[in-house]
Design goal:
- This protein has 292 residues and is mostly beta strands.
- The protein has helices spanning 35-38, 42-47, 57-62, 216-229; strands at residues 15-19, 66-76, 88-99, 105-118, 133-146, 168-169, 185-187, 193-200, 237-245, 254-264, 267-276, 282-291.
- It is built from four helices and twelve strands; from the N terminus they run βαααβββββββαββββ.
């Protein structure tokens, strides 16, 4: 849990629960729920059940303010599970005010979701203790409030609409902070290495926010980390990732992944930069860990 911020509490009107729909590919062959699939819990738990009709939604929408994902992290914990029994989710959201290095107020919508399930198996005889309650994992998401479709001089949100109050204050965190070495880890590499693979983004990578979808990056980093690890017995499953987004990529642009490896307990980890091939600009920063 030290890899991501701990779950937070919130008033009842800012909490939600749901059943998490699963796709067959969300569960690995040994029954673990992937981190990437966990992030979809934000939708049914909070966006669709709580925020759609919440009193803060209309004033933000009327002012052209949209929560744009700026940091996303997840950790996969217990298993195995079977496909038939849907996991359950509980989560909360909070409005946060932070002050950046230039002394400007910045506003976020933070979300925290925990996912539980039961011990099981999709095929074959049930495992011992089948039906035992499991903590499958946790997801933390931060969204910067901005006006992405407004005039350039109005995109930054300097104040919330009247009647909307923040829940708490927090230190501002730059995206590059996701490159920091986790507690208890040690570097393997002395510096960054660029992965040999380059990805050209197409429309299938994008979403309605008019840029590459945030969930495209975790898979790119995971695949690059697997190539970098060359440890088939001990670096097999991505049990954790964190990504922080400074600037989006767009359709037709090309991205390369730059990695620096570390070890933490039994995990093989990388910090990663997603770099625009055309100019070397790093736009997304993150961390990912592989375990046996």
């Amino acid at each position: 849990m030290s890899l991501i911020p701990p779950p937070f509490t919130a008033p009842a009107d800012r909490r939600g629960e749901a059943s998490l729909p699963l796709r067959y590919e969300d569960i690995s062959q040994d029954g673990r729920l992937s981190c990437r699939s966990m992030t979809h819990a934000l939708g049914p738990t909070l966006w669709e059940k709580v925020l759609v009709n919440h009193p803060v939604a209309a004033p933000l929408r009327d002012d052209g303010i949209v929560p744009i994902l700026s940091r996303l992290s997840a950790v996969s914990l217990e298993g195995p599970i079977g496909f038939a029994a849907r996991p359950r989710t509980k989560g909360a959201f909070a409005l946060v005010r932070a002050v950046d290095a230039k002394g400007r107020p910045r506003f976020r919508m933070d979300m925290s979701v925990s996912i539980t399930g039961v011990l099981g198996r999709t095929h074959g005889p049930p495992p011992p203790d089948a039906g035992k309650a499991l903590t499958l994992g946790h997801v933390h998401a931060e969204h910067v409030l901005t006006r992405p479709f407004g005039a350039v001089d109005r995109r930054r949100v300097d104040a919330l609409p009247a009647g909307i109050d923040v829940d708490r204050d927090s230190a501002w965190r730059e995206p590059e902070a996701s490159l920091e070495l986790p507690d208890g880890a040690r570097w393997i590499d002395s510096g960054f290495t660029r992965d040999a693979s380059v990805t050209t983004f197409g429309l299938g990578h994008t979403d309605s926010n008019q840029h590459v979808n945030s969930l495209v990056y975790p898979l790119l980093v995971e695949e690059a980390a697997l190539r970098h690890a060359s440890r088939p017995e001990t670096a097999r499953f991505a049990h954790h990732f964190e990504l922080a987004y400074r600037k989006p990529f767009f359709e037709s642009e090309r991205v390369a992944i730059e990695l620096r490896a570390y070890e933490r307990d039994a995990a093989f980890g990388v910090i990663a930069r997603c770099v625009d091939v055309s100019n070397g600009e790093a736009r997304t920063f993150g961390r990912l860990e592989l375990i046996a």
